[in-house]
Q: What sequence folds into this?
């Protein structure tokens, strides 16, 4: 299967918000506050030590595109629906309360045609590597996958020898930090955030974990008598398990605190590259009780929790921007915000992509056209408040950041290993107003393609329908669009005049259909599809023995 989410046990657990107080009383770790109190010291030491296995090589430095190097804060929101943010609501609704996101978008540039892959890991692999998913990873494999016959690409997510964007930024003099969801590889130290160039990291490797225990799947322990299944914790701090942090608070609260510590301890005179990938709004749907109660007027449980989680994240974003201003970093900061895919409208997802068709795991616009904008004091004054409709893909931020940092985006390490080159495009000329035309004219969807004003989809496409402005609802309380559409060799849409994909033009525009089929085949001929292997037993052995119950790299 192309789409693999965590095991059913995690996603089907009871809602932890109902037992938050009791849970914390039972599982609070006594030295939690002491651990948090030493965070600044740990961050400082991490920057002082040798940068462990970053994979960075000598890079070609160039003049920064904007003259000076901005601080860059990259925020990738998980499973964020098109209609689950205020600025996409033509008519305000009290269930969508995102004042901080809305304000940032208003002060910055809305990216109305920003595209991601239809689910998690390929989007994150694309963002970190600068390759379109078709050239790096189109699978949502578990991070424990390994093919011992391929030491370069026989792993989940990003091949070992591709240079991560953080390595490029570090070569340009940036301090680099990752917080939150990784989902871009775990097998070796080279696959971790530090291995991809981050000075520090605090987050998890899998598609999801529990917000209160940080458990993600588990392993069979054959050393016990009798053998038994044991939960494994997924929470990692730079080069080892984040012992003492898991089970101490709501996970997004831990990430918020770490983000604020990174900003507050950042040394003056050094450019900052901060990648914050919240767990919110991915399942399991869990949120602190006080946020849940704010949305007690919503009569559908999944929609209630989902909106409460979005509100929680919006408050985190408010804290983050306030911290940047307190440290006098705001005027020199570029903030880039995007979702990693459309909102999940399948049963238990809780999201809404109204008025777009479909959602996460589908190639309809609701699955791949995502919320996105840039903001911060570094955005040129003449561009603030604009909405741009040029195509942007997640891969394009790699080249854009390299341009702003003054470092060549070319990946020598990947070339030497025979891997696909960086194919992200520099968007700064468009964002800065030098021109208002995007250099990107095509977005491959695997399978499917956007080219110019047109989009082609092939084969059977699930979730072939639309939600209403309030979804899920009492008519469909857990969500789910059951309709599918057989596209065969091609369904054709003009997504500029028909953004909701209601009129299939295949029969009335045969010449355009043929052109799109040829362009799609040209892209498919370049696809990168290594054998990534299977779940490797050594991953569990390492988790239980070496890391004493935590997930982490299981190969040298």
A:
């Amino acid at each position: 299967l192309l789409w693999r989410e965590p095991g059913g046990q995690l996603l089907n657990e009871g809602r932890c918000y109902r037992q938050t107080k009791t849970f914390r009383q039972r599982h609070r770790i006594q030295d939690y506050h002491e651990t948090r109190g030493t965070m600044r010291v740990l961050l400082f030491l991490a920057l002082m030590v040798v940068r462990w296995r970053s994979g960075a090589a000598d890079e070609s430095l160039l003049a920064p595109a904007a003259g000076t190097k901005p601080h860059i804060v990259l925020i990738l929101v998980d499973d964020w629906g098109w209609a689950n943010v205020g600025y996409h609501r033509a008519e305000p609704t009290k269930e969508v309360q995102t004042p901080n996101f809305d304000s940032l978008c208003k002060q910055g540039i809305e990216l109305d045609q920003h595209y991601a892959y239809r689910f998690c890991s390929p989007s994150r692999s694309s963002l970190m590597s600068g390759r379109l998913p078709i050239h790096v990873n189109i699978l949502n494999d578990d991070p424990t996958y390994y093919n011992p016959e391929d030491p370069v690409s026989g792993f989940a997510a990003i091949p070992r020898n591709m240079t991560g964007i953080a390595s490029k930024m570090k070569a340009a003099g940036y301090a680099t930090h990752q917080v939150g969801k990784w989902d871009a590889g775990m097998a070796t130290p080279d696959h971790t955030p530090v291995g991809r160039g981050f000075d520090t990291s605090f987050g998890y490797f899998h598609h999801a974990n529990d917000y209160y225990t940080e458990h993600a799947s588990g392993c069979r322990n054959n050393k016990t008598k009798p053998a038994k299944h044991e939960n494994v914790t997924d929470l990692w701090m730079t080069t080892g398990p984040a012992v003492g942090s898991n089970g101490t608070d709501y996970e997004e609260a831990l990430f918020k605190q770490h983000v604020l510590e990174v900003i507050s301890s950042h040394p003056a005179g050094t450019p900052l590259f901060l990648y914050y990938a919240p767990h919110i709004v991915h399942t399991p749907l869990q949120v602190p009780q006080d946020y849940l109660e704010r949305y007690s007027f919503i009569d559908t449980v999944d929609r209630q929790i989902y909106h409460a989680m979005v509100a929680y994240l919006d408050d985190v974003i408010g804290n983050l921007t306030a911290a940047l201003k307190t440290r006098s970093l705001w005027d020199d900061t570029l903030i880039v915000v995007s979702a990693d895919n459309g909102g999940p409208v399948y049963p238990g997802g809780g999201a809404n992509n109204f008025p777009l068709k479909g959602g996460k795991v589908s190639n309809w616009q609701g699955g791949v056209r995502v919320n996105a904008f840039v903001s911060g004091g570094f955005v040129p004054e003449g561009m603030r408040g604009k909405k741009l409709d040029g195509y942007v893909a997640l891969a394009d931020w790699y080249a854009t950041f390299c341009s702003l940092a003054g470092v060549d985006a070319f990946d020598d390490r990947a070339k030497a290993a025979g891997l696909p080159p960086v194919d992200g495009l520099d968007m700064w000329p468009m964002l800065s107003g030098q021109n208002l035309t995007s250099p990107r004219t095509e977005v491959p969807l695997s399978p499917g393609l956007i080219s110019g004003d047109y989009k082609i989809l092939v084969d059977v496409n699930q979730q072939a329908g639309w939600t209403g402005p309030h979804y899920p609802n009492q008519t469909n309380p857990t969500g789910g669009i059951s309709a599918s559409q057989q596209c065969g060799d091609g369904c054709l849409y003009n997504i500029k005049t028909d953004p909701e994909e209601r009129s299939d033009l295949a029969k009335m525009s045969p010449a355009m259909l043929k052109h799109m089929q040829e362009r799609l085949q040209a892209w498919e001929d370049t696809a990168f599809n290594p054998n990534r292997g299977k779940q490797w037993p050594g991953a569990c052995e390492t988790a239980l023995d070496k890391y004493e119950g935590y997930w982490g790299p299981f190969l040298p």
Q: What stands out?
A: Residues 1-56 have pLDDT under 50 and may be disordered. The two ends are 28 Å apart (CA to CA). Residues 396 and 426 are 6 Å apart (CA to CA).
